[in-house]
Design brief:
The complex is a heterotrimer of chains A (264), B (267) and C (163). With 264 residues, chain A is mainly alpha-helical. Chain A has helices spanning 2-35, 38-42, 44-55, 59-83, 90-128, 131-137, 142-181, 185-195, 198-226, 231-260. Chain A has one domain (36-260). In chain A, 88% of the residues lie in helices and 0% in strands. By secondary structure, chain B is α/β, with parallel strands linked by helices. In chain B, the strands form 2 sheets. Chain B has a 6-stranded mixed beta sheet with strand order 6-7-8-3-9-10, sandwiched between helices. Chain B has a 4-stranded antiparallel beta sheet with strand order 2-1-4-5, with helices on one face. Chain B starts with a strand and ends in a 6-residue tail after the last helix. The longest helix of chain C has 26 residues, at 3-28. With 163 residues, chain C is an alpha/beta fold. Classes of the chains: A mainly alpha (264), B alpha/beta (267), C alpha/beta (163). At the A-C interface, helix 3, helix 7, helix 8 and helix 9 of A face helix 1 of C.
C-alpha cells in the first residue's frame, strides 16, 4: 500500500521534472532560433518558401472554416439577439467575437493541426533520414537554415490567416444575417463600425495571432527537432505538437486577453 | 604538417553509462583510402561522428589536419567541416530539392559564386558520378545506388580534403556495389583527397582500400594492408573475412542458459 | 515547385491577407476617425458617471462627434473628471452642457452635448461647466418612493378628509 503511494509519487515527480526540463529546453531552443535568424532575413526566399508551405497551403481550410464559423455565429447570434429585440446588433456580435477571439484562436488551432503537425513531421523525418546531420556536417547550422525560416514564415503567415478567417467569418455572418434572414444591412455595418475599434479590437487581435503563430511554431519545431528518429517517435511527436500547441494557444489567449481588455 | 590527415589517439567515448569506444588509436595518411571495419554496433558510426565533431570524446583526442576536433569552438569546427565531406548511409539527400539543388547546396551556402559558375561546378560533379542526366529528378525518384552517388557528388562539391563514408556498400546490388567502390577509389586518387570508409563489407572494401582497421567492442583488434588482412590468422579477422557464423563473435546475444529459460530444468 | 510559381502564390496570399486586414480596419472597425491631429480635448466634471466607460461615444443631436478618452477621480472635489476628444470639425460654444445618457433601456451610456448660445467657442483644454451626471436607478426609485410618500403626507386619502 505504502509502496504503491510511493510509486505514484515517484512517477508524478519524474513527470514534473521531465516537463520542466522540456519547457526549459524548448525556451532555450526558441532563443537559439531568434539568435540564428540572421540568414532568414538576408536570404528572404527561404522564408518565402515557408510562407508558402505554412500559409498558402493552410488557406483553404482557414477560408472555409471562417465562412462556416461566421454563418453559425450569424444564426445563433440572431436567435439570441432577437429575444431582446436587438437583432440589429448582429454585426457587432459577429465582428467582435471574430476579431477579438475566434479569428486568432480558431485560426491558430487550425494552423496547429494543419501546418504545425506538418512542420513536426517534416523536421522529424529530416532527422530520421540524417538530413539534419548532413547539414551539420556540411557546416550549415540546421537552426539557421531549417528552423528559423520556418519560424518566421509561420509568424508572418499567422496574422494574415487570422485576418482572412475573421473577414471570411464576417462575410458569413453577413450572408446569413442580412441576405438570408433580412437584418437591416445599414444597421449591420454601421453598428459594427461604431463598436469595433481599430486599436482596441483589431490591432489586439493581430497581436494575439502573431503570438499564437510563434507559440504553435516553436512547439512544432521543437517537437520535430526533439523527436526520436524512428517512425513511432515522429508520429508521437506530431500528435504531441497538435495537443500541446492547442492547449498553449488557449492558455496564452487567456493571458493576453486579460492584459488587453481589462477595464474596458 | 604531419603525414596523417586524421589521427585518433586513445579515444574513448561513452553514451551515458554505455562505453562504446575504449582507447582507440588509428590514423589515415593523406591520399589513402582507409577502411574501418567491424560487425554491426561496434562503434564505427560513433567513431565517424567523433571525427566529424558531432560528438565530443569522453577521453583522448581526434586530430584532423592538425586540429583537435573535440576542442574546437563551433565557428572553427564549422570552418573545418567545410573541408570535410560525409556520405551518409542512405545518402541523406534533401528530399525537398532536386538532384541539382542538392549538389549546389553547399556552393550556395558557403560561396557567393555567380549562378553560371555554380551550374558548371554542379554539372562537373554530377558528371564525375555519372548522373549528369538525372539533374532534374527528385531524390524520391532515385534508386538507392543513385541516391548515394548523388550524395557523393554533393559531398565533393566544395573539394574537401577528407571524405567519410558511412556504410557506402550497404544494401546495394552487385553492379552498384562495384560502381560505388570504384568511384571511391577514383575520386580519392583524382581529387587528391583522403577517404575514410566505415563498412562491414569486407570483400568489396578490401579491393579498394590501402589500409584496414578492425574494431570489435570498442577496441582496435587488428590492422594492416588488405594483403596482411587476407593472410591474417587472427581468429576474429578470419571469422570476419570469411563470414563464418560462429567464432569470437558469438551468434547468440548473451542470455541465460536456453534450457533454463524454457523452464526445462523443472520438467 | 518552380520559384516563380511559389513567389506568385505567396504574393497573392500576402496581398489577400493585407486586404483582409484593411477590410477589418476600414469596413468593420472605424479607423477611429478622431486621430490626435484632427481633434481637440475638453474636460467635464460629473458628480456621478454611472456606467460610463472609456471609448464611449460623445453625441450631439444624436450624431457621434467624439469619444471619451479618459476617466479620473478628482480627490479634492470628489467628482469624476471625464476627458472628451472631439473631432475638430465639430465646434461648440463655450457654454455647451454635457449630460450622461443611456441609449435604449439597458444600452450603453454616452455623453450628450447640448450646444449653448455663447459667442466664444470651446478650444483645446477647456472645461464644460454645466454637466448632468448619470441617473442611477436606485436614486430614481428612491426619489420615486420619496415623492410618493410626500404626496401621501400632503394629500391624505380622500376617505379620511371627507367624512
Amino acid at each position: 500500500m505504502l509502496d504503491g503511494i510511493a510509486a505514484i509519487l515517484r512517477r508524478m515527480g519524474a513527470r514534473t521534472i521531465n516537463s520542466i526540463w522540456r519547457l526549459g529546453l524548448a525556451t532555450r531552443f526558441f532563443f537559439l532560433t531568434l539568435m540564428y535568424s540572421g540568414p532568414s532575413f538576408r536570404r528572404f526566399h527561404l522564408v518565402i518558401k515557408e510562407i508558402f508551405s505554412s500559409g498558402v497551403l493552410s488557406l483553404v481550410i482557414i477560408l472555409v472554416s471562417g465562412l462556416f464559423v461566421g454563418m453559425v455565429l450569424g444564426l445563433q447570434g440572431y436567435e439570441t439577439l432577437q429575444t431582446y429585440g436587438a437583432e440589429e446588433s448582429l454585426g457587432v456580435l459577429v465582428s467582435l467575437s471574430l476579431v477579438r477571439e475566434l479569428g486568432p484562436v480558431v485560426a491558430a488551432l487550425l494552423f496547429a493541426s494543419r501546418a504545425g503537425s506538418a512542420i513536426t513531421a517534416e523536421i522529424g523525418l529530416m532527422k530520421a533520414t540524417e538530413q539534419i546531420s548532413a547539414l551539420e556536417m556540411m557546416a550549415v547550422d540546421p537552426i539557421a537554415r531549417v528552423v528559423a525560416p520556418r519560424f518566421w514564415g509561420a509568424v508572418i503567415s499567422m496574422p494574415l490567416l487570422a485576418a482572412l478567417f475573421s473577414a471570411m467569418g464576417i462575410f458569413g455572418g453577413y450572408l446569413v444575417g442580412v441576405v438570408l434572414i433580412g437584418v437591416d444591412e445599414g444597421a449591420f455595418w454601421s453598428q459594427m463600425q461604431a463598436a469595433v475599434d481599430f486599436q482596441e479590437d483589431i490591432l489586439n487581435g493581430v497581436i494575439k495571432s502573431v503570438v499564437f503563430g510563434g507559440v504553435v511554431t516553436v512547439i512544432a519545431l521543437y517537437e520535430g527537432y526533439d523527436a526520436p528518429p524512428t517512425a513511432e517517435g515522429v508520429s508521437r511527436a506530431t500528435t504531441r505538437t497538435v495537443v500541446t500547441s492547442s492547449l498553449a494557444v488557449l492558455a496564452w489567449d487567456f493571458v493576453l486577453t486579460s492584459f488587453m481588455f481589462r477595464g474596458v | 604538417m604531419s603525414d596523417n590527415l586524421v589521427e585518433v589517439r586513445d579515444l574513448s567515448f561513452a553514451y551515458a553509462d554505455r562505453l562504446v569506444l575504449q582507447g582507440v588509436n588509428l590514423a589515415a595518411r593523406r591520399g589513402q583510402v582507409v577502411a574501418i571495419m567491424g560487425n554491426s554496433g561496434c562503434g564505427k558510426t560513433t567513431l565517424m561522428r567523433l571525427i566529424g565533431g558531432q560528438l565530443k570524446p569522453t577521453q583522448g583526442q581526434v586530430r584532423v589536419d592538425g586540429e583537435s576536433v573535440g576542442e574546437l569552438k563551433l565557428r572553427d569546427l564549422y570552418r573545418l567541416r567545410r573541408r570535410m565531406g560525409m556520405l551518409f548511409q542512405f545518402g541523406a539527400l534533401f528530399t525537398d530539392m532536386t538532384v541539382y539543388e542538392n549538389v549546389a547546396f553547399q556552393l550556395r551556402e558557403h560561396t557567393d559564386l555567380p549562378e553560371e559558375m555554380v551550374r558548371d561546378l554542379v554539372l562537373m560533379k554530377l558528371n564525375a558520378v555519372g548522373l549528369r542526366g538525372a539533374q532534374d529528378l527528385m531524390p524520391a525518384e532515385l534508386s538507392g545506388g543513385m541516391a548515394r552517388r548523388v550524395a557523393l557528388a554533393r559531398a565533393i562539391a566544395l573539394d574537401p580534403m577528407l571524405i567519410m563514408y558511412d556504410e557506402p556498400f550497404a544494401g546495394l546490388d552487385p553492379i552498384s556495389l562495384g560502381i560505388t567502390g570504384d568511384l571511391i577509389r577514383r575520386l580519392t586518387d583524382t581529387l587528391g583527397l583522403t577517404s575514410l570508409v566505415v563498412t562491414h563489407d569486407v570483400q568489396e572494401s578490401l579491393k579498394i582500400v590501402d589500409y584496414v582497421y578492425f574494431i570489435s567492442e570498442g577496441v582496435v583488434v587488428a590492422q594492416g594492408t588488405p594483403k596482411e588482412i587476407r593472410a591474417s590468422d587472427l581468429s576474429y579477422v578470419h571469422q570476419f573475412v570469411h563470414g563464418e557464423e560462429d567464432g569470437p563473435v558469438p551468434f547468440h546475444y548473451p542470455a541465460p542458459a536456453y534450457a533454463e529459460e524454457l523452464g526445462l530444468r523443472h520438467a | 515547385m518552380k520559384k516563380t510559381v511559389l513567389d506568385f502564390w505567396v504574393g497573392l496570399f500576402v496581398a489577400a491577407g493585407l486586404a483582409a486586414l484593411l477590410f477589418l480596419a476600414l469596413r468593420v472597425g472605424s479607423m477611429s476617425g478622431f486621430d490626435a491631429a484632427k481633434s481637440y480635448t475638453v474636460q467635464a466634471e460629473f458628480n456621478n458617471i454611472g456606467g460610463l466607460k472609456i471609448r464611449a461615444p460623445v453625441k450631439s443631436a444624436g450624431v457621434v462627434v467624439g469619444r471619451v478618452t479618459d476617466i479620473r477621480f478628482d480627490s479634492t472635489m470628489y467628482e469624476a473628471v471625464v476627458e472628451l476628444r472631439l473631432g475638430s470639425e465639430y465646434r461648440f460654444p463655450a457654454d455647451t452642457s454635457a449630460a450622461i445618457m443611456t441609449s435604449g433601456l439597458l444600452g450603453e451610456q454616452y455623453i450628450a452635448l447640448e450646444a449653448g448660445g455663447d459667442e466664444k467657442m470651446l478650444s483645446d483644454g477647456d472645461k464644460l461647466k454645466i454637466t448632468q451626471g448619470a441617473v442611477v436607478l436606485e436614486d430614481l426609485i428612491g426619489q420615486f418612493l420619496y415623492s410618493k410618500g410626500e404626496e401621501g403626507a400632503a394629500a391624505p386619502p380622500p376617505a379620511e378628509s371627507a367624512p
